[in-house]
Design a protein that fits this description.
Elements: H1 3-24, E1 44-46, E2 60-66, E3 73-83, E4 95-97, E5 111-117, H2 126-136, E6 141-142, E7 147-148, E8 153-155
Family: Belongs to the peptidase S58 family.
GO molecular function, one term: aminopeptidase activity
InterPro entries: ArgJ-like_dom_sf, Peptidase_S58_DmpA
Length: 172
């Protein structure tokens, strides 16, 4: 098998594992499609056509955006109402953001969105774009002064796939 193909298959398997860990943690949600209709501006909204999809859960929307220049991108899972999440981070060099917020002993016990991206540590910036959109909609955990969007994120290292490792998911 060609090295690039085997690398892509390994990345796909690892990414599916990361997605499964995050998605199993979503415990409760309600549907309110209009609230998030404009959040994923250039992403393709995924609608389930078969049973057993994460989008079968009321209140869960999934958007995906890929870079046309290289095989990388990000997936955003939006929770239309309060969702409780959890995470199990593993690996020798995990790339995560805000996953410690999901510990049940911490103050914050909700998730507004989850970002899964390529691009290694550089892909974590994709979560900043989701946070920016949620801030514009005044969505997030209420603090005394303002709402703070809770957007845990995880990335995988796909920098060795394709021609240009400088093309990575970003906040735009």
């Amino acid at each position: 098998m060609h090295t690039c193909v085997s690398d892509l298959m390994l990345l796909k398997n690892n990414f599916c594992l990361i997605q499964t860990i995050f998605l199993i943690a979503v415990l409760r949600a309600r549907f309110c499609n209009a609230r998030y209709s404009n959040i994923i501006k250039r992403a393709q909204l995924v609608h389930s056509s078969s049973e057993g999809s994460i989008t079968d859960i009321a209140g869960i929307l999934v958007g995906q955006s890929s870079k046309s220049e290289r095989a990388t991108g990000c997936t955003v899972i939006l929770c239309n109402t309060t969702c409780v999440g959890g995470v199990d981070v593993r690996g020798s060099a995990p790339g995560t953001r805000e996953t410690d917020l999901l510990d049940p002993i911490n103050t914050v016990n909700i998730v507004n969105a989850i970002v899964l991206a390529g691009g290694s540590v550089f892909g974590l910036d994709a979560a900043s774009g989701v946070v920016r959109c949620l801030v514009e909609k005044n969505i997030g955990f209420q603090t005394p002064r303002r709402r703070v969007p809770i957007v845990p994120a995880a990335v995988l290292n796909d920098l060795n796939v394709g021609d240009d490792p400088f093309i990575v998911p970003d906040a735009n």
